[in-house]
Amino acid sequence: MSVDTAATSLSPRRRELLDAAVHVVADDGLRGLTHRAVDRRAGLPEGSCSAYFRTRRALQTSLAEYVAAALAADVADLAEQLRGLSGADDRAAGLTAQLFLRWLDERELLLAKLELSLEASRDAELATVLTTSRSQLVGVVAGIMVAQGRDHATERAEALVASFDGILVAALPKPDPERRDFLSGSLRLLMAALGAPAGPPA
């Protein structure tokens, strides 16, 4: 994923520590996220992580921002590739499937995002970080809808982003050949449906 793009404003050491934190959360869940665990994963002396992220709260919040930025960078790249394509165009579903397969093959960021999203349901500060990121993502997708001349662009975009999340979660445990077929079929159905004319929102 576009970790490098997302981390351009970070110092090399902070980026190294947050990369390690992503792997810790992917392997052990958010409960396993400690300064010591990050230091061990990064191969750095004990105390390195706490020197940059003084508290676990600071580490967790910075990780949420880092993961959200990495995923948003990938989505922005995809939006450029989709420019001019309709939701019913098989190329749109194919390009989206390529990104999702990469996320699933390199699943650490995706797993970290899922762990952080669950925690955000109980943590207002974390929810703010992820809600801001999600709003930006919906805005990118809505922009594609507007460019295609679709009505109710924001409602469509919110439904599409939520549906993408569900498809990714459902695809995670599937074996590779089955996962590819599932993604391709699901995305074609979803994007064709959202590209169809919509009635007024309820």
What does this structure look like?
The protein has 202 residues and is mainly alpha-helical. The protein has a single domain, classed as Tetracycline Repressor, domain 2 (Orthogonal Bundle), CATH 1.10.357. Helix content is 76%, strand content 0%. It has 10 helices and no strands. Helix 2 crosses helix 3 and helix 5 packs antiparallel against helix 6. The longest helix has 27 residues. The N terminus and C terminus are likely disordered. It comes from Nocardioides koreensis. This is ABC-F family ATP-binding cassette domain-containing protein. Keywords: ATP-binding, DNA-binding, Nucleotide-binding. Pfam families: TetR_C_31.
Features:
202 residues; Tetracycline Repressor, domain 2; 76% helix; 10 helices; mainly alpha; single chain
The tally of helices reads 10
Give the mean pLDDT.
84
Distance between the termini: 37 Å
CATH class: Mainly Alpha
The proportion of residues forming helix, as a percent range, comes to: over 70%
**CA radius of gyration:** 18 Å
Structural class: mainly alpha
Q: Return the CATH architecture.
A: Orthogonal Bundle
Overall number of strands: 0
Global shape = globular
Structurally, the number of domains stands at 1
- The CATH homologous superfamily: Tetracycline Repressor, domain 2
Main sheet characteristics: none
- Low-pLDDT parts are 1-7, 196-202
Quote the CATH topology: Tetracycline Repressor, domain 2
Strand fraction: under 5%
> What is the string of SSEs from the N terminus onward?
HHHHHHHHHH
In short:
Pfam families: TetR_C_31. With 202 residues, the protein is mainly alpha-helical.
